[in-house]
Amino acid sequence: MKLTQLYKQVKEENKVLIPRRSPEEREKNFLVATNKKIQEYIKNGARGDLDLSNSPITSLPDGLTTIRGSLNLSESKITKLPNGFTVEGYLYLENTPITKLPNDLRVMEDLHLEGTQVTSLPRDIQVEGWLWLYNTPVSKQYTKAELKFASPGIQGRILYT
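User: That's the sequence. What structure does it adopt?
Assistant: Structure tokens below.
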């Protein structure tokens, strides 16, 4: 049986699945679920990795200033991080709308900024691993040597094309 025949048969039998929630409702529910996940993470001492990739959050809640593991915010709607933010593992911000990094940002492993709109790095940033800057305005504006000089806390390699 061809797919079109199957579709016609199911449609005729009035068994076509109809979405129960609108895209707006799904987005709202996803935001609620994401916030619950963050609150549970905080309640558990902010230990371990936190995966918020593809989430609708635009900022982290007040009081969450240290992640005792890695934080994945790739493909999320994050636009800012708190000042004095520390990530004891990797920080993934790929393909997010973030344009500016906070003062006193400390990442103990790699910092991934690929596909962001970050235009500069804070002077007091600390990155103990590699800094990934593929396809960013900052990588097009400055050389690796200029970035190292402007942000001496970058200890690992700076990677971009």
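The longest helix spans residues 23-43.
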